[in-house]
Amino acid sequence: MKRSKKEVLDADFAAARAGVLDVAAFLDRVDRGDGEADFRYDALMEALPLLLSVSEGGRVRAILEALSYRDAVIPDEAVTKAACGAPNLSR
Amino acid sequence: MSFIEPHIHMVCRTTDEYRAMAQAGCLAVGEPAFWAGYDRSSVDGFRDYFIQLTECEPARAAKFGIDHYTWLCINPKEAQDIVFAREVMQLIPEFITRPNVLGIGEIGLNRNTSRELLIFEEHLDLAIRLDQLVLIHTPHLEDKLKGTKMILAALKNRPDLSPDRVLVDHCEEHTFPLVKDAGYWAGLTLYPTSKLNPKRASDILELHGSERVWVNSAADWGDSNPLALTALACELHRRGFSRKETEMLLVGNPEAFMGQSPKFRKVSGHE
Fold this sequence. Notes:
The structure holds two protein chains of two kinds. Helix content of chain A is 49%, strand content 0%. Chain A contains three helices and no strands. In chain B, 43% of the residues lie in helices and 16% in strands. Chain B has ten helices and eight strands. Chain B has helices spanning 15-24, 43-62, 82-89, 92-95, 114-130, 144-156, 176-181, 198-208, 228-238, 243-258; strands at 3-5, 26-32, 67-72, 101-108, 133-137, 166-171, 185-189, 213-216. Chain B has an eight-stranded parallel sheet. In chain B, strand 1 (3-5), helix 1 and strand 2 form a beta-alpha-beta unit. In chain B, helix 3 (82-89) packs parallel to helix 5, helix 5 (114-130) crosses helix 6 (144-156) and helix 8 (198-208) packs across helix 9. The chains are: A mainly alpha, B alpha/beta. Chain A binds chain B through residues 1-3, 11-12, 15, 57-58, 60-61, 64-65, 67-71, 74-87, and chain B through 77, 80, 110-115, 117, 139-146, 150, 172-174, 194, 199-200, 203, 206, 238-241.
């Protein structure tokens, strides 16, 4: 069931193009905002170059790992109940 | 098509959605105990919830010909107060013998704290003592990788808990191989933004196969879709998966895992 590159492009190029434009529009929107961006913006900017690299585990895995806590610290309590999508390494 | 939705929180969904699921081919649902979106103020709040899961929801589902199963626990988001968590856990033996209870779940971690880990391990003790299946929630977003590793390390210390009887849910590209390599069942969850979409889930299934994998919507009170599995089936068919392969994923696999409980009634001819 392995598809050719052309078959994958035919199936998914338009959606991928829309996704890239969505990221670009988001970054422009943040840039237009007042004040300072926080660690989430920095984490995303650091992850974006991974789109251009080919790694053994794939780009998705590399980006997910880049947006993950990878330390060994186990706190007694959490600062907040909800995750936000990027590690806050300033804590 | 037919499907089993093995992880969904129907207490949050409408009767119209039960109807829509039945009309789309849903044969059975599994509903693990979870965080209601707010912290319950008393142990009795959990008693009421367990009654809802074991009496009210099966009756709602039955009106549409859907079999309803459930899993019991205190979720990690409410496990920061260890004394309170233990009091809730003391309720579980009272409910575990009810006819639609398949096991302990969804236990696991949320923000990967030592208190969450302690209560997770005590739930594993309970599952072993009561000879129950285990359904595990892995944390969200930036906490998922670290939390999944902590969960797998804790499971490794339980040789008396067979990997066949444990499913680690909400896997993504960076955690799926860890769970499968450790020998456990793995779950893939379809969410609009914070987990997998049908294309990414299909990629994982293409790359790694679908043996000992279940897929689910985990639909709850948030942005989620109780018919997400129908979108996954469409994507798989578009890629060339056969009807038989899709049915095995959507019916045969959840039957195989949940069917380890004698309470589960098979809905297909899969063995």
